[in-house]
Specification:
By secondary structure, the protein is α/β, with parallel strands linked by helices. 49% of the residues lie in helices and 15% in strands. Bound molecules: adenosine-5'-diphosphate (2 copies).
Length: 216
C-alpha cells in the first residue's frame, strides 16, 4: 500500500500515521519528523531547514524532494509506505509521481483528514511531543498535566512552530500551497476524505475503512 496523508497542520496526520502505518505494517515517513531530527542533530540539512520551519514556511522543494527520494529508496519502503507531510504542494506531487513511475510504482490512495479551522487551532495550541519516543500528546484532550510521556516517561515539549503567530502563517501556507493538492488528487481519482473529528480511535477506524477497498 502506497499512501499519502494530507490535511492542515493539526488535523491529526502524525497521530493517525502511527496507527495506520502499524496496522498496515508499512513504514511511516514524516518529513516534519525527519527535518526536526536533523535540526536537533545539528546537521547541514537541519541548519538550512530550521530557518524555514521557524517562520512556518515550506523548506525549498529541491532539498525536501532529495530527502524523500533517499528515504523512499531504502529497503523497507519497497513494498509500501505512508507519507505524512509530503507532498505539500503541486510541484512536489508531480515530482513524486514521476519518481514512483520511474521505479514502476504509483500511489494507491491519498487520505484527506478533514477538520475545521477552530479545531485545528485548539489541537495545535495544546500539542506536546515526547522528546524521547516522538509520540504526540495533547495537554487538554490527554490530560497531560505532568509533562511526561505515558508511553516512555520522556519529557514532553512544545514545538517552536506551534506558537500562535507561526500557526497563523502555517495555516495560510496550507491554504495557498497545500490545499490545491486536494483537487489535484481528486482529478487523479485517488482522493478519499475522512472526517477527522471525534476520538482518535474512531478516526483511525474511519481511515481504515476508507483504505480497505484500495488494498490489493
Ligand atoms: P504539521 O504536522 O504540524 O503540519 P510538519 O511536522 O509536517 O507540521 O512540518 C513542520 C515543518 O517542516 C513545516 O512547517 C515545514 O517547514 C517543514 N516541512 C515538512 N514537510 C515539508 C514538505 N513536504 N515540504 C516543505 N517543507 C516541509
Ligand atoms: P498534524 O500531524 O496533522 O499536524 P498531530 O497528529 O500532531 O497533527 O495532532 C495535533 C494535535 O491534536 C496533537 O496534540 C494531538 O494529540 C491532537 N489530536 C490528534 N487527533 C486528535 C483527535 N482525534 N482528537 C483530539 N485531539 C487530537
Amino acid at each position: 500500500m502506497r499512501l499519502v496523508l494530507v490535511g492542515p497542520p493539526g488535523a491529526g496526520k502524525g497521530t493517525q500515521a502511527q496507527y495506520i502505518a502499524s496496522n498496515l505494517s508499512i513504514p511511516k515517513i514524516s518529513t516534519g519528523d525527519i527535518f526536526r531530527a536533523n535540526v536537533s542533530g545539528g546537521t547541514d540539512l537541519g541548519k538550512l531547514a530550521k530557518t524555514f520551519m521557524d517562520r512556518g514556511d515550506l523548506v525549498p522543494d529541491e532539498v525536501t524532494i532529495a530527502m524523500v527520494r533517499d528515504r523512499l529508496s531504502e529497503d523497507d519502503a519497497q513494498d509500501g509506505f505512508l507519507l505524512d507531510g509530503f507532498p505539500r504542494n503541486v510541484p512536489q506531487a508531480e515530482i513524486l509521481k514521476k519518481m514512483l513511475a520511474d521505479w514502476g510504482q504509483a500511489l494507491d490512495l491519498v487520505l484527506e483528514l478533514v477538520v475545521d479551522d477552530d479545531e485545528v487551532v485548539r489541537r495545535l495550541a495544546g500539542r506536546r511531543t515526547c522528546s524521547q519516543c516522538g509520540r504526540i500528546w495533547h495537554v487538554e484532550f490527554d490530560d497531560k498535566q505532568d509533562d511526561r510521556c505515558d508511553a516512555c516517561d520522556g519529557a514532553l515539549f512544545q514545538r517552536d512552530d506551534d506558537k500562535e503567530e507561526t500557526v497563523r502563517h502555517r495555516l495560510e501556507v496550507y491554504g495557498e500551497q497545500t490545499a490545491p493538492l486536494i483537487s489535484y488528487y481528486a482529478d487523479e481519482g485517488i482522493l478519499v476524505g475522512v472526517d477527522a473529528t471525534g476520538p482518535v480511535e474512531e478516526v483511525t477506524q474511519r481511515a481504515m475503512e476508507a483504505i480497505r477497498p484500495f488494498m490489493g
